[in-house]
Design goal:
Radius of gyration: 21 Å
Strand content: 5-15%
Distance between the termini: 21 Å
Largest sheet: 6 strands, parallel
Strand order of the largest sheet: 9-8-7-10-11-12
Order of helices and strands: HEHEHEHEHEHEEHEHEHEHEEHHH
Oligomer: single chain
Structural class: alpha/beta
Amino acid sequence: MVTNHSYMLWRFRKELIAELQRTGEVVISTPFVGHEDDFRAMGCRLIETQLDRRSINPKTDLKLYRFYRTLIRTERPDLVVTYSIKPNIYASYACKKCGVPYCVNVQGLGTAFQKPLIAQLVTVMYRKALKKARTVFFENEGNAQEFQNRRIIPQTRVTVLKGAGINLEEYPLRPYPSEADGVRFLYLGRIMKEKGMDELFEAAQTLKKKYGDAVHFDLVGFFEDAYKDTVERLSEAGVVCFHGFQSDPRPFYAMSHCVVLPSYHEGMSNVLLEAAASGRAVITSDIPGCREALQNGVSGLLCKPRDAQSLTEQLEHFLRLAPEERAAMGEQGRRFVEKEFDKKAVVRATLNALLPAREPV
């Protein structure tokens, strides 16, 4: 397994890895950013990999490709599974060169497909990288269709999953909290432009001015430097409450009444699935990777992407509901993810695509 982030691999793929271990040894190539000891305790072997996720330096990327080529020639794996754009491209190139079977996970289109010139380059690179992939996993139909429209991959080698799924035991239904101190909206994730932070901050300022202490905005995550001053200013003004990065998000879902994600692009939002599993309504952008995680008007509300006014209107719509209606939205969300996003079903579907020669599970 080749990825750019050990922490995220553990959070969302540990159940899949446990099942793969039944078929053989799992070796993980990743930068070490958390949970290395947990993987080793499972019996995985880890290979530390230097990877700069944001660099566009050709020399750095050539070095990464050469590392993957040497790694695959040395390990001679039966199958390589990649996650995130640089492993998807450069490890795939290496697999092609070495004649090793590989499967690729496209977890979202990211900023690379938002800028025309970069999108053209990435399209060409992906087209070459995926030419011999056994299958390419997508987390929503919109992203899969985008790759087909760009003639990167034919439909015959596309597998659309329900994201990474949600572990319903790990994220149990939580009682709806008291509203005695007001309604709490939670944003959980990276504080960056592509997550809709400009729109969220504008909406928060509007609603705090109108409703005062009857509404609260909690932020959990880490911010890019571009947002440091903004977060500090809004925290000091009492518009938001910033809790920093938290390794366990579950207590924050439990204390919230609604989870907000006004993102510009997603593969499949794990935050929305975790929130719904916890019994919390969600408000999110009407985009692939977000809209699939809710039933609009039933378990949550959709707003227009990149539109602060639309987001403000949906937040205010939620505020105008009766408490029992807000609680019922969360309960409907739990039922929805139980039916559509159970981690066990997603793992079975993934195994059946990764290992087609074995008996279906």
